[in-house]
Amino acid sequence: MTRFEQNSRGSPPTGVFIQSALDALTAHIAILDEDGVIIGVNEAWNRFATDNDFSDSNSGIGLNYLDICERAAGINAEEAPLVAKGLRRIMADPRRDFYLEYPCHGAGIKRWFVMHVTCFEWENKRRYIVAHQNVTELKMVQVALAESKQQLQAIFDNVMNGIVTVNVRGVIESVNPAMLQIFGYSALEELIGQPLQNLLSGSLQDMPASKLIEHLQYTHNHETTGRRADGQDFPIYIALNPVRLGKRQVYISIIQDITERKRMEAELLEKERLRIELEKERELRDLKNRFIAMMSHELRTPLASIMLSGDMLKVYGDKASDEEKLMYLENIRVQIEQITELIQDVQTINRDSGPNGVFLPEVKDLVTYVHSIVEEFQLTHHKTHVITFETSLDELFTLFDTKLMRRILNNLLSNAIKYSVQGDTIAVTLSNGKSRARLRVRDHGIGIPEEDLKHLFEPFHRATNVDQIPGTGLGLSITKQAVEIHRGKINVESNTDADNHGTTVTIDLPVVLE
Known about the structure:
alpha+beta, disordered N terminus, 4 domains, 14 helices, Helix Hairpins, 24% strand
């Protein structure tokens, strides 16, 4: 028999049964008599006393529990008097019970217990059950949850973005302090219970709650206009997502005040606009300078020649033969045509069509036409360059403007001759693919530096390696315009390497029949 059994006055079978039942419990249990003396304990109490080096070898049996509590010192000194006070209250009124949660930490270990004291009758005498239940695991979970809640609350209270919770009817249930700052309210109560629409402006303000929630859930761009407490509108970003809280469906919305971002975006746009305007102004200034330089250079030679021929006629007209007079007049006519052609080139780059301001396409054989232009250049330049024409086509009828096509070929062949040394070969090829004609002109001239290729089609721009070779910088610009009028594409590949220099211009034109 244990001490509890020895002190119990029931029959041995009853005492054994009660002791066995108490020993099976995990709680540390002690039975007190009417004076508070410990008259029995269970096995869990014994183990706890042994594990914690309790000074009494009988685990406290025979000691007054009230005295132990009132004299307690150390770790549980604060809770012990509360236990004694609660126990005396039950002794005074047996109908009551006493409940206390308290820490009981040991060396390197944290523990929490729940103490429960109740009164019962045994053989017409009042007895008290003191049960200490270890709730450390539950308490650790509670502590972790509390810490997590504190962390979440700290984030909720200190985050810069507004956080608002609304129910399925769109009514605000909670907000964080940032919402007050963003919308200019002074107390949380001013927002709680209000419809979410009160925070919005424009069409969203008049939208039914269900439609508004659906709109905010599934619309990708959530930038809209909010309305502050003073009625002032301002730009916001709002996102809304559904959340299940138990059996309830709620929606959590994140709101950002994007006033500063919009201001910065506006500043960037204004800076970009000014940059573009300044860039255009610089380009126009450069264009003007190139135009003036080109005109002064290209006009000087023909004007000087015209002046010389005029002076010769004026001074020696009466002595010159008719043949000499015709020579001077022919020179004046040729120089005037050169100036006229230069002016037409300048006019062409400002038009949407050919030199005459109109696009007059007709169906012709492109093979025959290109061949005829090449033959003209072969006849004119046969002493200085070898110009070849290759094609596997017998004919290729398509729609093109003959004047513009002549301008394209003239510019490409003239450039190839101008920037190639005497004796070089200039190859012209014509082929066709799926619904297109490909015209290619290749030379072995000085080539175009890589840094100039990106400016190649700009009016008046000339490559940096042309030196004193005459030119206006308009040829390729006009060529590109003429190609694009035909809905074609032009591509230039060039190399300035000593072993592999030269330029290839490829033009793709759609094959179109009326």
